[in-house]
Design goal:
352 residues, alpha/beta, two-stranded parallel ribbon, 11 strands
């Protein structure tokens, strides 16, 4: 059934976020709860952040008096450095499920106050120290005016087919999602993706490496396609939705023929100076009416059951088919155990 999270999919998500035991971390210095009327949150920037400000942070500030400050993602290595030096500057971490699950395993997050959530309304239950706030599909992006029907890749195998679809590519410089895509492109069946065959994945990536750039940010990747700097990219449906709206620049297209489906999650950084404010903002973000307001604008899938029923037909057009057998649901459980080691190998591979 399109536009809803199937029972099987829910089980997969739950399996991805369950069973992760936070390890203790040593802090050189502890911070007392700052008596502040603000809170800081990591953001992806671009149209996503603009929508976040409009539908979440501004109403939250009006309701609570707590101002929200956005910061670029520091990466897990910098979170670790902040905590080791006792200089934690971020309250709320936001990132994809694999990175957040890996941070959980390394003991980077505070325990959440689950009593502040309506657990029965959430399709994905919190892991104790982080909670999924949205579901996203990743897929192939192109300029439809430049590449008409049949002239662009639509699946990951076609994205890797330089003979049939020549041109430059853009992909995220992250091992999670990228290695799954490489294996799907090499013919691995979606049901057999995990555990990842790393040697086969890197060998598959070698085929397109000389034709691929690795922009750090999602907005930059979209901009590359709009300006023609690259011909095709891997990005998320909400980013492409933004290009089809007023002020979005060159309208792009997104393929739902094959998607990687993952979650984004939020957590409170251990040692955060404004922990109480952070907990209030996270709880606010998961309210049905807030989720409906935000995801109706950005086009991703809310984790609130009630919010899912409130979305407009236009927003539903940008949601993936959870029953498409070509799709793969990203395993947070796998990446919680492997992101650090595989990430080092991936960084070395990009450099060479």
């Amino acid at each position: 059934m399109k536009n809803s999270i199937s029972t099987a999919s829910r089980r997969s998500f739950l399996a991805g976020v369950a069973g992760i035991i936070a390890a203790p971390i040593v802090l050189r210095a502890s911070r007392a709860e700052a008596n502040s009327d603000s809170v800081t949150i990591v953001s992806y920037g671009g149209s996503y952040q603009e929508a976040h400000i409009k539908t979440i942070s501004n109403p939250f500030t009006q309701e609570t008096g707590i101002k929200v400050e956005y910061l670029p993602s520091p990466g897990l290595d910098k979170i670790k450095a902040m905590q080791l030096t006792g200089n934690v500057q971020i309250d709320i971490w936001t990132s994809d499920g694999p990175s957040t699950a890996s941070g959980s395993k390394q003991g980077f997050w505070e325990k959440l106050d689950l009593s502040m959530f309506d657990l029965k309304d959430l399709t994905i239950q919190p892991a104790g120290d982080y909670v999924a706030n949205e579901v996203f599909p990743g897929g192939v992006v192109w300029d439809p005016k430049k590449y008409g029907p049949g002239k662009h890749p639509a699946s990951f195998a076609e994205f890797f087919n330089l003979a049939k679809f020549p041109g430059r590519r853009a992909m995220r410089p992250n091992p999670n999602l990228t290695l799954e895509i490489a294996l799907l492109a090499d013919g691995v069946a979606p049901k057999d993706i995990y555990p990842l065959d790393l040697d086969r994945a890197f060998k598959s990536l070698d085929r397109i490496k000389s034709n691929t750039v690795w922009p750090a940010g999602l907005p930059q990747s979209i901009s590359y396609v709009q300006t023609g700097e690259v011909d095709f990219a891997i990005n998320y449906s909400n980013r492409v939705k933004g290009t089809t709206e007023m002020g979005g620049g060159v309208p792009l297209a997104f393929s739902f023929e094959q998607n990687l489906i993952g979650v984004d999650a939020v957590a409170i950084v251990k040692g955060a100076p404004r922990k109480k404010n952070a907990m209030r903002l996270i709880a606010y973000m998961l309210k049905p009416e807030v989720q409906a307001r935000f995801y109706d604008l950005v086009g991703l899938v809310p984790v609130s059951k009630k919010a899912a029923t409130m979305l407009s037909p236009e927003a539903r057009k940008w949601q993936p088919d959870f029953n498409n057998p070509n799709n793969v649901i990203v395993s947070n459980e796998y990446w919680a155990d492997n992101l650090e080691s595989v990430g080092l190998r991936f960084k070395e591979w990009i450099k060479t």
